[in-house]
């Protein structure tokens, strides 16, 4: 699996520099169970919290609640988006920046398609939405760094 295809749970583990075997030991589960958890099988809030602590990745439980928890999906949609949350660690910022990188690829792909497609207005709307998301995520990451180290400008 390529780095760009990692899900948030794998991303957190790899950003913490942990193998699946070592992470499983820290979480108190088997490597097979961790593999299942990373794929969303039998994932629960307790494991998500343990992952967040072991990986130093505070956004992970919020992501879990918003995307992988039945109650969270039902009652949290629209309450907040992952991009609008305040990052608290380097892993949080790294994850948000990886989203920016993925969005940048989408922008380039959309721009390339705009040159060749008759439905330019629809693609322009997609491009506009993506650019807003990239900008928002970049601002969140910059705000974290400014708060942590002071404004460098």
Shape-level CATH architecture of the largest domain = Orthogonal Bundle
Mean pLDDT: 74
Biggest sheet details? none
Q: Could you name the ranges where pLDDT drops below 50 across 5 or more consecutive residues?
A: 1-5
Number of strands: 0
What is the tally of helical segments? 8
What share of the residues does DSSP label as strand, in percent? under 5%
CATH class of the largest domain: Mainly Alpha
Helix content: 55-70%
Task: Tell me the Rg in angstroms.
Answer: 18 Å
Give the CATH superfamily of the largest domain.
Answer: lambda repressor-like DNA-binding domains
State the domain count: 2
Give the termini distance in whole angstroms.
39 Å
Overall morphology: globular
CATH topology of the largest domain: 434 Repressor (Amino-terminal Domain)
Order of helices and strands: HHHHHHHH
Overall structural class, as computed from helix and strand content, comes to: mainly alpha
Q: Can you walk through the features of this model?
A:
With 153 residues, the protein is mainly alpha-helical. The chain has two domains: 73 residues, Orthogonal Bundle (434 Repressor (Amino-terminal Domain)), CATH 1.10.260.40; 67 residues. 70% of the residues lie in helices and 0% in strands. The protein has eight helices and no strands. Helix 4 packs antiparallel against helix 5 and helix 7 runs antiparallel to helix 8. The longest helix is centred in the last third of the chain and has 30 residues. It is globular. The N terminus is likely disordered.
């Amino acid at each position: 699996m390529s780095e760009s295809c990692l899900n948030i749970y794998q991303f957190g583990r790899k950003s913490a520099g942990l193998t699946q075997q070592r992470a499983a030991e820290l979480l108190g589960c088997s490597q097979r169970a961790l593999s299942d958890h990373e794929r969303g099988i039998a994932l629960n809030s307790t494991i998500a919290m343990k992952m967040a602590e072991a990986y130093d990745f505070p956004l992970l439980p919020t992501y879990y609640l918003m995307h992988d928890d039945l109650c969270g999906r039902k009652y949290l949609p629209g309450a907040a988006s992952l991009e609008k949350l305040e990052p608290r660690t380097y892993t949080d910022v790294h994850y948000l920046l990886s989203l920016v990188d993925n969005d940048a690829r989408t922008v380039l792909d959309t721009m390339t398609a705009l040159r060749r497609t008759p439905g330019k207005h629809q693609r322009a709307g997609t491009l506009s939405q993506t650019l807003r998301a990239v900008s928002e995520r970049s601002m969140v990451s910059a705000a974290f760094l400014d708060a942590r180290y002071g404004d460098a400008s």
